[in-house]
Write a structure and sequence with these properties.
The chain is α+β, with helices and mostly antiparallel strands and about 400 residues long. About 20% of the residues lie in helices and about 30% in strands. Strand 10 and strand 11 form a beta hairpin. The radius of gyration is 33 Å and the shape is elongated.
Length: about 400
């Protein structure tokens, strides 16, 4: 898979604003609804999700991996409306036992540390397991009105019957004498020997051998139970905001406490700059609407059927508008966490009128409204006519 920065056409020094801008431009081009490639679109989505999250970006810059190099990682992103926790490589949900490979243990073996009562894999009490990051896909309406999501998953907790050992009866490993590691000596020069340590293969670094497996966890050291998270999306929450569920990851061997489940809210019906699609910036919304040339002068009524707060009508009676003019509706934007609502901006696209010559009567009516003189020409002037086939102005020398 290509580098995340190169997917967005950026270098590693790009700011968060540059990343968001590049993603938005590429999303317009690569979106499957506009004929783009679905896999390329998913790739730039993943790059945006990782690089706009400070913790994940820092880990990616250090390791080159979107999941920080931990085993049993989750794929980035989430399909709209789908279950957000998919498991790869045999890993379980939220850090199931046996998922992560602890490099700290390897270093402790190499340098002779970590051989206390808990074996070479033991850590200081209070050490917390890794967090798990996932996205929750929401519509603009979900952010506007709020939403409650109940999420069920299997959560692993240390078996109370065997205190996480997996054994009803055990004995010290005979291969390592209960230390959990083996010492190796090798010559690195004339008369110079180096000592290194590695986990014992006989007990996999545990320091003991199971004689009879625990009847409760069947030797797995943990027991799974069904867990439900209640996710409350409140009006005023933002795209990219992260909800933290403290300690809701599964227990992991070698860690005193489980990590946190961190769910990032993502809008999954993002506007792509087309007509009738809402773009969201801060507390404000922007939408583009087309009107006829006559409506741009005489006024118009617009039906906002797709507004996240429900269908509504708006009226313009303020006079002529040019193509690209922006009108606004106070309180028509997104809800603010502090109360109230932002502004709805409506950019007007004026459709060109049919091109026909004015009759003298029509010209006189327009003059009475707009002021100015009617072009009548004289004998020395040359009359222009419109070539309607390709909209070129041509000269008629009759």
């Amino acid at each position: 898979m290509s580098d995340l920065y190169s997917r967005l056409g950026l270098d590693s020094n790009a700011t968060k604003e540059e990343i968001r801008r590049a993603y938005k431009d590429l999303a317009r081009e690569k979106h499957p609804d506009r004929g783009g490639n679905e896999e390329e679109f998913k790739a730039i989505q993943e790059a945006h999700e990782v690089l706009t999250d400070e913790d994940r970006r820092r880990m990616y810059d250090m390791t080159g991996s979107v999941d920080g190099g931990a085993g049993g990682g989750m794929p980035g992103g989430m399909a709209a409306g789908g279950f957000p926790f998919q498991f790869m490589g045999g890993g379980g949900p939220f850090g199931m036992p046996g998922v992560a490979f602890d490099m700290g243990d390897v270093f402790s073996h190499l340098f002779g540390g970590g051989s206390g009562p808990g074996g070479p894999r033991s850590r200081s009490r209070g050490d917390k397991g890794p967090n798990k990051h996932h996205d929750i896909g929401l519509t603009l309406g979900d952010f506007y009105r709020g939403k409650e999501i109940k999420l069920k998953f299997n959560q692993a907790r240390k078996c109370g019957s065997c205190d996480g050992s997996g054994a009803e009866k055990s004995e010290p490993c005979s291969q390592c004498s209960g230390s959990g590691f083996k010492t190796h000596m090798r010559a690195i020069g004339p008369g110079i020997m180096a000592q290194s340590r590695s986990p014992c293969e006989g007990c996999e670094g545990e320091g003991k051998r199971i004689l009879r497996a625990c009847k409760t966890c069947h030797g797995k050291k943990a027991v799974e139970k069904e867990k439900m998270l209640e996710i409350k999306i409140k009006p005023g929450m933002k795209d990219g905001q992260t909800l933290v569920f403290d300690g809701e990851c599964s227990d992991m061997p070698g860690f005193e406490r489980p990590g946190d489940v961190m769910l990032t809210l993502r809008r999954n019906d993002m506007g792509l700059g087309e007509l009738d699609e809402y773009e969201w910036d801060g507390d404000d919304l922007t939408i583009r609407k087309s009107v006829t040339f006559a409506e741009s002068i005489l006024g118009f009524t617009l039906n906002l059927d797709k507004h996240p707060g429900g269908a509504r009508k708006v009226v313009w009676r303020g006079g002529p508008l040019i193509h690209g003019a922006v009108v606004k509706l106070e309180g028509g934007g997104m809800p603010r966490a502090s109360g109230g609502f932002g502004v709805l901006h409506i950019q007007i696209h004026v459709l060109p009128p049919p091109t026909v010559p004015w009759s003298p009567e029509d010209a006189a009516k327009l003059m009475s409204v707009l002021g100015g003189a009617v072009a009548t020409g004289d004998d020395s002037a040359t009359t222009l006519k419109l070539d309607s086939r390709d909209s070129r102005l041509v000269v008629d020398r009759e």
